Amino acid sequence: VDSYFLKRIFIMTKTPITIARGDGIGPEIMDATLKILEAAGAQLAIEEIEIGKAVYESGVKNGIADSAWDSLNRTKIFLKAPITTPQGGGFKSLNVTIRKQCSLYANIRPCVAYAPYVKTNFPKMDLVIIRENEEDLYGGIEYRQSQDVMASLKIITRPGSERICRYAFEYARANGRKKVTCMSKDNIMKLSDGLFHKVFDEIAAEYPDIEKDHMIIDIGTAKVAAHPEMFDVIVTTNLYGDIISDVAAEVTGSVGLGGSSNIGLDFAMFEAVHGSAPDIAGKGIANPSGLILGAIQMLVHIGQGGVAEKVHNAWLKTIEDGIHTGDIYRAETSKKKVGTAEFSKAVVERLGQKPSTFKPVDYSKAPAGGIKLPPLKPVKPEEKLRVGVDVGLNWDGKPDELAGLMQDCLLPEHNLKLQMISNRGTKVWPGGKPGTFCADNWRLRFMAADGKTVKTSQVLALMNNMNEAGFNFTKSAMLHTFNGVPGFTVAQGE
After folding, report:
1. pLDDT of residue 7
2. How far is CA 118 from CA 110, 423, 463, in A?
3. Total Cβ atoms within 10 A of residue 314
4. Contact at 8 Å (CB) between 61 and 92?
5. E strands within 361-455?
6. pLDDT bracket for residue 88 (50, 70, 90)
7. 430 prior amide bond cis, ω within 30
8. Residue percentage of the chain with pLDDT more than 90
9. What pLDDT score was predicted for residue 2?
10. Exposed, middle or buried: residue 112 (CB in 10 Å: 0-12, 13-18, 19+)?
């Protein structure tokens, strides 16, 4: 009876997780990772789902079947090997789909140098990139506006910015980090990136114990590549974070050593930074380290920090002992070139050991369940007034001619006047420059003729006149002020 009772407790304490073996090298590195976790004593109740290439090819365009969602919604912990997203067509990135549908707002990518065993020019590099994971251009909202013009919509929200910025400071505090650097491009995208920078400054003021600074993303990326020791924690938007985390991982010596966690309020996904590498699939030579390090982050998250510590120290000892896969093997520092399975076996053999050159890891104080954020800050309502409209349309001709035709569509009761015409974001009327190159899609800005506000009915009446005149619309956007401040930008040259 006692034996049966103890066995039931053992089973009940296992944490349910969902795994997917993925595409390309995914099945190989997942097998290697699971063998290490099992040998280390990880208490996991594993459910397996199929996602990716085979599911796409079966006709499911998002790459994940409803039955797979049932498992994910049940376990809320996902260890995922890399998958392949078909290029072109109507296929959406499954990685992005999962991150957005599960509200995995924070992507955490530690970038650490493992010198002298992994070649790098920056042996002291140890930074963490925290990337907003749901918004920005990764919303995938795109339009073909004309024969020649494609457009993508960049979405940055105050709540999304607040959550990721606060997470960065809470992460820094919980992990003994001293500085958080924000990166944006708010010298150009003054509203979207401007909001992200503004919210960062607001949140930073609540953490006087942590140093904060801001860099424009282009020079910031250059500094990550050339002087990564300048940084501790970097927080940034989705696209920038995706780019600079790959730059940083490569600077450490290999993207193959990058693990990643994606954290939401009640859901988390763990993976390798790298892709599915179909060119080496099935050869048994892939480095499983990225997924192993992602799995270590998973173990910490689910409260099995002791197992995570054992696996991480064994992995460090393996690297330190010169047991290397081909991507990081060097004759002068490596002792043995191994494949995927043999590397995994070497880690298992070192479970319980600690590195001597690297500093052993200690997860004894790591909070289970991840970092908990307070509720979003309340925001005072602002007075929102409609003051105009931007109308996009196709047109083959000159801007002066287009402006003249618009006057025929405007009537006094519309309470609108044509203020500006732009092409590819540059003002071309009035006073456009003859050297400005123009595509076949134009933006016409109409503002309230009385300098006050306009009604929706007046905008629709104008657009109806334009439609009757044969103009081909591509897009319209209402223009508002918020507490008197314009919620739209001027065109280049305006």
Report:
1. 46
2. 16, 50, 62
3. 23
4. yes
5. 384-394, 416-423, 426-429, 441-448
6. low
7. yes
8. 84
9. 52
10. buried
